[in-house]
Amino acid sequence: MAKRIEASNVSSYYGSFKAIDSISMTVEPKTITALIGPSGCGKSTFLRSINRMHEVLPNARIEGSLTIDDQNIYDPDVDVTAVRRLIGMVFQRPNPFPTMSIYENVVAGLKLNGVKKKSLLDDAAEQSLKAANLWNEVKDRLSRPGAGLSGGQQQRLCIARTIAVEPQVVLMDEPCSALDPISTLAIEDLMFKLKDRFTIIIVTHNMQQAARVSDKTGFFSIDKTGDPGRLIEYDDTQKIFSNPTEKKTEDYITGRFG
Amino acid sequence: MGDYPSRSENAVTGDPGVAPRHTRAAGTGVSPSSYDEPPIGGGGALPRKKSFSMESGFRGLSVAAGAMVLVIIVAIAVFLISKAIPALGANTENFLTYTRWFPNESNPAFGIAALAFGTVLTSIIALIVAVPISLGIALFLSHYAPKSLATPLGFTIDLLAAVPSVVFGLWGRDVFQQPVNDFSVWLNKYFSWIPIFGGEGPFGQSIMLGGLVLAIMVLPIVTSLSREVFQQTPGMNEEAALALGATRWEMIRIAVIPYGRPGVIAAVMLGLGRALGETIALALTLGLVFNISFNIIEIGGNSVAANIATTFGEANETGRGALIASGLVLFAITLVVNMAARAIIYRRREFRDSAA
Ligand SMILES: Nc1ncnc2c1ncn2[C@@H]1O[C@H](COP(=O)(O)OP(=O)(O)OP(=O)(O)O)[C@@H](O)[C@H]1O
Ligand SMILES: [Mg+2]
């Protein structure tokens, strides 16, 4: 159920502004990859380029190639909604649909796929909520508004909603930045659990988190504001955090970065 | 996990957020009007509350304003009811079920039935026609049209709302009537088996003409309010839908429309309010006939407000009382509609409140 993502020379633009420059990296199936780097260096932009959410913004475009198991994600003949189903995304701020109940939130993606049978939806909702470590907390109030949960619960609800459609890859953009340490740990545990089924790419500003959860780490940086972000170093997490090749990486990790 | 303070957003907002709180002297938070008092740390007594301040003055002002609204409303109600009661007492027919209107005779006979029927039917037709078109335009402007097109188009529609209703009435009577007449003949030819399109004619100043003119008048209100509501859909919910693999229309269906629903209902109710109360445009486009008929294309139709406008001039004392009574009925209809709308909005309030 997990697939390999391969980026080669990906550059993404907002209008004429180049936000990232020639990013190349390969993400193996069933691994967790962490993307770290200072604010504004293009981590989110790169992540959103992977599931074609980048092009939702007006005038946004990308160059280079991105493939999932050797299929070109940006092939003009490819159905972009299918790409997004294959590559799910969890956002920085929990964003459950405010008008929907907990249950409706989880099955929203399945309903989009045309699943109508109640028993199938019920099963999927239970499975996904269990996988997201949320089932026990919400099983008695599935028909209550999803937005009435705590922030951490909402984020796990969003994760449940994302994995309910059985994607191959899950992108997470700072999924814990709005959460308390306990909820953060809950989501990190969850990532370990999900690693058996999905390829996970996570953006984080939390160095310890990157070191704890990821197999590989990519360090992005910019030289100065206005310059495009670059991938400075991409290697095993172990290596990045103990013995990075690049001086810039070491400076950033040890906190000597501006 | 000492990671949170190191997050860049926190680092930026944290410091300036703390500083002003410390620079402000401790005692000044007690009352907004006491900034010139010595601070608490000076060792003196606690600052005293001022006997008169902007605070209490403003409170008195707003209480008075609120009370005045109530007094005015009660006064109007008392006046209207006191005028209506003698006329209703002199009525020789049942006011609620009689269809005709002869309040100025020596034996006054008048009833609201045909008028209320015409008011409601023209408004329903107006909404059936206007609401789908308005929502379509609103969604197009908020989610499909490029900005360069949406801005002038939205402006044009807002302009339409500013056209006085007498202009719509004259236009409906002198320009729009002919095409509606032709359309009525066509409908009658092929669909006369549906009762509302039956009859022998003549066609022209019909419920349909009035309803369509009302539809055009209601359209700008419903459109611009719905558009505003749709635009307020949180971007992160739209992105959530897209990231789940929704097409643009699916995104609108699961994120935009449910989010905007209470606002759209409110917009429709405002439109309905305008339609129910519309006077001059209907007085110019309806047949002003006092009977109840579901045929919407034959000459006919009337409405409470149009009747007031057209017959007030030659009304005597009882006649004016009768018209005032009909106005009270219109008020009751509007009230019921509004309460129904509130009930609908209220039902899913739980979902809205927790979303904030
Ligand atoms: N919608 C947009 N329109 C124009 N420029 C944008 C837009 N979003 C981001 N950018 C720019 O692109 C660059 C990269 O932004 P991006 O959000 O990818 O950074 P990031 O690494 O995710 O930062 P952070 O850690 O703060 O989330 C920045 O210079 C930013 O100003
Ligand atoms: Mg980001």
Comma- or semicolon-separated keywords:
heterodimer, A: alpha/beta, 6-stranded mixed beta sheet, 10 helices, B: 356 residues, mainly alpha, two-stranded antiparallel sheet, 12 helices, 2 strands, 68% helix, flat, binds adenosine-5'-triphosphate, binds magnesium ion
How would you describe this protein?
The complex is a heterodimer of chains A (258) and B (356). With 258 residues, chain A is an alpha/beta fold. Chain A contains ten helices and ten strands. Chain A has a six-stranded mixed sheet with strand order 6-7-8-3-9-10, with helices on both faces. In chain A, helix 3 runs parallel beside helix 6. Chain A is globular, with a radius of gyration of 18 Å. Chain A starts with a strand and ends in a 5-residue tail after the last helix. With 356 residues, chain B is mainly alpha-helical. Chain B folds into two domains: 46 residues, no CATH class; 265 residues, MetI-like fold (Orthogonal Bundle). Chain B is built from twelve helices and two strands. The longest helix of chain B has 37 residues. The N terminus of chain B is likely disordered. The interface between A and B is large, with 41 and 31 residues. Bound molecules: adenosine-5'-triphosphate (ATP) and magnesium ion.
Short description:
Chain A has 258 residues and is an alpha/beta fold.
